[in-house]
């Protein structure tokens, strides 16, 4: 009988997770992986002190500050993603269609293709560093302000 209840709980958990309703766990009802469920997973339960209501999340989501946060994040993430994908596909296409170029020896057994591949790794670390810098300077301050506002409403 316990196995059936665990399966039902697991199915309920999966259904909630797929709907995007499982956020934090602060309710007395346990779920199959430990922890607790909150009002976000059960619309019939009233909000308790210390939790943030769905209405408050929606209010912040509709705010100009949240729009600014999304715009700031996207202004870096989308162009950088496009640049990296173009760079990556250039490498893949060059290895398919420009084999002679990729096999050109630069020094000893070092080829253009090998240098191109190493540059892929280097550019990945560079983009990660740029993202950390940009996020720390531009995105995090806006996100912290919104988070503080939400946490203040939960008190």
Can you describe this structure?
With about 160 residues, the chain is mainly α. Helix content is about 70%, strand content about 5%. The protein contains five helices and two strands, in the order ααααββα. Strands 1-2 form a two-stranded antiparallel sheet. Residues about 20-35 have low confidence and may be disordered.
What does the radius of gyration come to?
24 Å
Q: Looking across the biggest beta sheet, what order are the strands in?
A: 1-2
Q: Helix- and strand-based class?
A: mainly alpha
Beta-strand percentage?
Answer: under 5%
Rounded to the nearest angstrom, the distance between the terminal CA atoms is 41 Å
Average pLDDT number: 80
How many strands appear in the DSSP assignment?
2
Low-pLDDT ranges: 21-37
* Major sheet details: 2 strands, antiparallel
Q: Count of helical segments? A: 5
> What is the string of helix and strand elements?
HHHHEEH
Q: Which overall shape is indicated by the principal axes computed on the Cα atoms?
A: elongated
Please give the share of residues in helix.
55-70%
Looking at this protein, list some descriptive labels:
single chain, mainly alpha, 155 residues, two-stranded antiparallel ribbon
């Amino acid at each position: 009988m316990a196995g059936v209840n665990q399966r039902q709980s697991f199915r309920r958990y999966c259904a909630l997770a797929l709907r995007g309703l499982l956020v934090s766990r602060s309710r007395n009802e346990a779920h199959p992986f430990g922890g607790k469920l909150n009002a976000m997973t059960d619309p019939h339960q009233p909000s308790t002190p210390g939790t943030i209501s769905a209405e408050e999340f929606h209010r912040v989501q509709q705010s100009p500050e949240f729009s600014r946060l999304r715009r700031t994040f996207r202004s870096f993430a989308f162009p950088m993603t496009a640049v990296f994908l173009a760079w990556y596909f250039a490498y893949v296409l060059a290895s398919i269609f420009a084999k002679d170029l990729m096999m050109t020896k630069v020094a000893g057994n070092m080829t253009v293709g090998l240098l191109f591949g190493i540059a892929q790794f280097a550019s990945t670390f560079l983009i990660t560093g740029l993202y950390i810098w940009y996020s720390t300077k531009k995105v995090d301050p806006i996100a912290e302000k919104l988070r503080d506002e939400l946490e203040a409403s939960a008190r």
